[in-house]
């Protein structure tokens, strides 16, 4: 009797071990799948707010698939605005929810991104790998069908957020006056997404739910608070430390930097702030040894957080419409001064990286705790060394202050942006908690 019990227990453990190894294999597909989106966005030079929107929607279908497979997971409709679940029209035994979820990430990107057709090769490689692991053709085809079905449903949902109406809005014209933003060198690009506040948020109630403190009042007076803000940016740039230079470069995250040499201009493409935090989420999930479902949950919640944070931040940017340090310093301090980082083409207040990074850090802290140490290698693709952090909040604080070191933000835009981001992140974490989404790690 004892022998048969031990034998049954051993068999059960063997099955669980085999399933865990299979889960682990599928989890390793997730980061490459999300990065495949980043590669296409870099090719298309997708601006930061739009990139965050794509990341968010591309993760929703994957979460929907795994939440319908596991009834213990909280449905998206419990915390997303105006979302209605589309039931998968196929018995769960006919498809593999993990294959379907990974395929759905890429398929949603294929349908939504301007150059989404490039993802077809990634999809084909993924399917070929499943065939090589002896997954039956019937299961693969069914899984692809489920992934495609949910991707199409998510695209339908995305079309209700007013993004399609942006092109019909009036083009932005710089506001006249010394205090206001004006396009900056070298490319003098036009304003990025001046009407982004009209996009429907996914979790927060409205674009202006978290209006930050007012910015310091503009002044040309060398004794004014505003002049002191600009002088701080200038002084840091004169004798930056090696660490300040490293921090500024690491968190640059400018999707399109233009370098000039004589009459020639060269464009350099990078990931956006949202792309950087999506990769941090993937790194953290791996470090925390999360399951497949938990990893998708972390990536999905990071995506919706950065999307809502950009909507809130962009609402303020085009309300205050504040002049950038480069323009102010060139006019009133040093005509020939240039910032370390290229000034992005939109108003200064509040700092986008400060808002988005802090919001993402708050949600990740809710999910995984405040003591998860990790090494962030997101920028190694651009030959920038990895950096290590003691927590998500540590990383977010560094991302925020990097904008001062880089010469593209004043201190009040950074600090008030951090407060704005903290309010957004804590609101989203509170909404998740109320909906029943529990922390994944104590």
Pairing-aware structural class of the strands and helices? mainly alpha
H/I helix tally: 13
Helical residues, percent: 55-70%
Low-confidence stretches: 10-17
- Shape by Cα distribution: elongated
Summarize the main sheet: 2 strands, antiparallel
- The portion of residues forming beta strands comes to under 5%
Question: Distance N terminus to C terminus?
Answer: 40 Å
Sketch the topology as an H/E string, one letter per element. HHHHHHHEEHHHHEEHH
> Reading side by side through the largest sheet, how are the strands ordered?
1-2
The overall pLDDT average reads 92
Record field, number of beta strands? 4
Radius of gyration, in angstroms, nearest whole number: 23 Å
Q: What's the gist of this structure?
A:
Helices cover 56% and strands 4% of the residues. It has 13 helices and four strands.
Give the SSE map.
Layout: H1 2-44, H2 48-69, H3 97-112, H4 119-132, H5 137-158, H6 225-238, H7 242-250, E1 256-261, E2 264-269, H8 273-287, H9 292-320, H10 325-332, H11 352-368, E3 374-376, E4 387-389, H12 392-405, H13 411-435
Antiparallel strand pairs: 1-2, 3-4
Helix pairs in contact: 1-2, 1-3, 1-8, 1-9, 2-3, 2-5, 2-8, 2-9, 3-4, 3-5, 7-12, 8-9, 8-11, 9-11, 9-13, 11-12, 11-13, 12-13
Features:
single chain, 442 residues, mainly alpha, two-stranded antiparallel ribbon, two-stranded antiparallel sheet, elongated
């Amino acid at each position: 009797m004892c022998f048969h019990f031990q034998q049954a227990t051993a068999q059960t453990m063997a099955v669980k071990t085999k399933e865990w190894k299979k889960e682990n294999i599928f989890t390793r597909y997730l980061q490459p799948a999300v990065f495949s989106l980043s590669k296409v966005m870099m090719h298309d030079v997708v601006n930061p707010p739009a990139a965050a929107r794509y990341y968010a929607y591309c993760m929703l279908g994957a979460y929907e698939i795994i939440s319908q497979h596991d009834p213990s997971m909280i449905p998206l409709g419990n915390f997303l605005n105006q979302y209605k679940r589309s039931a998968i029209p196929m018995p769960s035994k006919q498809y593999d929810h993990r294959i379907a979820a990974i395929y759905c990430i890429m398929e949603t990107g294929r349908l939504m991104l301007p150059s989404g057709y490039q993802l077809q090769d990634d999809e084909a490689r993924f399917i070929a790998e499943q065939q090589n692991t002896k997954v039956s053709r019937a299961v693969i085809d069914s899984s692809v069908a489920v992934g495609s079905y949910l991707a199409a449903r998510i695209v339908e949902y995305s079309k209700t957020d007013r993004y399609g109406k942006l092109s019909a809005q009036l083009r932005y014209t710089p506001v006249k006056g010394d205090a206001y933003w004006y396009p900056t060198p070298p490319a003098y690009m036009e304003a990025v997404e001046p009407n982004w506040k009209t996009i429907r948020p996914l979790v927060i109630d409205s674009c202006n739910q978290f209006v930050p403190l007012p910015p310091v009042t503009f002044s040309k007076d060398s004794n004014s608070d505003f002049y002191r803000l600009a002088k701080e940016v200038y002084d840091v740039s004169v004798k930056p430390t090696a660490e300040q230079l490293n921090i500024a470069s690491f968190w640059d995250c400018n999707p399109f930097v233009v370098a000039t040499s004589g009459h020639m201009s060269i464009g350099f493409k990078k990931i956006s702030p949202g792309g950087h935090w999506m990769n941090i989420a993937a790194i953290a999930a791996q470090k925390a040894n999360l399951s497949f479902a938990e990893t998708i949950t972390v990536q999905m919640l990071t995506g919706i957080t950065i999307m809502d944070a950009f909507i809130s931040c962009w609402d303020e940017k085009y309300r205050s419409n504040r002049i950038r340090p480069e323009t102010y310093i060139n006019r009133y301090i040093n005509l020939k001064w240039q910032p370390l980082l290229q000034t992005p083409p939109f108003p200064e207040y509040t700092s986008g990286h400060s808002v988005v990074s802090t919001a993402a850090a708050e949600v990740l802290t809710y999910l995984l705790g405040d003591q998860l140490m990790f090494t962030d290698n997101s920028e190694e693709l651009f030959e920038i060394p990895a950096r290590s952090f003691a927590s998500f909040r540590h990383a977010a604080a560094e991302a925020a202050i990097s904008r001062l070191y880089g010469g593209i933000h004043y201190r009040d835009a950074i600090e008030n942006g951090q407060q704005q981001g903290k309010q957004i992140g804590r609101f989203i974490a509170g909404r998740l908690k109320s909906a029943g989404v529990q922390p994944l790690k104590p």
